[in-house]
Amino acid sequence: MSLLTVGSVAFDALETPFGKTDKIIGGAATYITLAASYFTEQNNLVAVVGGDFPQDMIDLLETRGVDTEGLQIKADGKTFFWSGKYHTDMNTRDTVDVQLNVMGEFDPVIPEAYQACQYLMLGNTAPAIQKQVLERLAQRPKLVMLDTMNLWMDIALDDLMALLPLVDVLTINDEEARQLSQEYSLRRAAAKIMGMGPKTLIIKKGEHGALLFQGERIFFAPALPLEEVFDPTGAGDTFAGGFIGYLASTDDISFDNMKRAIIYGSAMASFCVEKFGTERIVNLTDDEIRERVLEFVSLASFEIK
User: Fold this and answer.
1) Which N-terminal stretch is annotated as signal sequence (predicted)?
2) Other residues' Cβ atoms within 10 Å of the Cβ of residue 213
3) Does 240 reside within a domain?
């Protein structure tokens, strides 16, 4: 089934306790589409970059089967840029520089070929832009998944609240879930947030795994203990891409299949953090992904006697 991802394609400059990079390819939609490319063949992208964005990076996306007809190139503008520095614990970071550039005036144009998409991933952008995408589609997709963050809860809460009833799956981290719900207990937070509209909620807990909520049903996916974590940038987006990519490939949105999708998303995210940027998730093999998924399965597999 076809997947449409709308979000940012960007430059990042990163510094972690393991080293630093100059400008490398980043952005939510980049990580999402790359992760999803291992599962679905119809993988469409709507984003915007400036004239400074190298053709070889676009070629990289296309090599992975990402359709870039919806990638706008503003020749007289500059690509969105983010620079950050991670603390020793790798869970906290400081933003060093943000330059919205062409992303500041992003007008998502949906090509005709994308109009019939069955799965829609709204990557982390302003809620008003995300809502605009839904309004510009000729028909509602089978499943709409939304990623957002605490920034929009701070400066665009009304827009976000108007958007939540229009989506099927919301993915946020535990801090954001508590902020949005004003509840400390994640179970109470989930119930309150699902009451705002989304039928399904994913709460990401970083190195502590992820929770899947739907009605009264709950599933927990552990995180894989890794020997080294080089760069957590994009891990959440890679998780989302693996999750919705798997759903699109199976065309099954049941709760049981979402549990499998959570594991595939977690496996993709575990690859992402092993190298800087997108380096690790560009050339994975099917065998590597399967072996990693089986590692996740073994973490919580046991027999009751």
Assistant:
1) none
2) 24
3) yes
Phi, psi angles (nearest 5°) of residue 126: -60, 135
Q: DSSP string spanning 64-103?
A: TTEEEEEEEEETTS---EEEEEE-TTSS-EEEEEEE-GGG
- Give residue 80's identity as a one-letter amino acid code: F
Distance CA 269, CA 224 (A): 10
pTM for the predicted model, two decimal places = 0.95
**CA–CA dist 105, 141 (Å, integer):** 25
- Enumerate the β-bridge partners of residue 95: 84
> In total, how many domains does the chain have?
1
Q: Is residue 17 part of a domain?
A: yes
Which whole number is the average pLDDT over 265-278? 94
Return the ∠ at Cα 25 (arms to 292 and 164), rounded to 5°: 75
Predicted confidence (pLDDT) per residue in 103-125, tens digit: 999 999 999 999 999 999 999 99
> What does the DSSP 8-state code read for residue 120?
E
Residue 8 lies in a domain: yes
Return the pLDDT at 226: 84
Give the chain's length: 305
d(CA 213, CA 169): 10
Q: What is the pLDDT of residues 36-75, one digit of tens each?
A: 999 999 999 999 999 999 999 999 999 999 999 999 999 9
* 177, part of any domain: yes
Q: Residue 109: how many CB atoms within 10 A of its CB?
A: 12
**Model confidence pLDDT, tens digit, residues 208-252:** 899 999 999 999 999 888 877 888 889 999 999 999 999 999 999
Residue 130's alpha-carbon distances to 5, 134, 246, 277, in angstroms, are 11, 7, 22, 24
List the domain range (segments joined by +) for residue 98. 3-299
Partnered with residue 173 across adjacent β-strands are: 204
Here the tokens at position 255 are 């709760």
Q: For the domain that residue 116 is a member of, what is the CATH number?
A: 3.40.1190.20
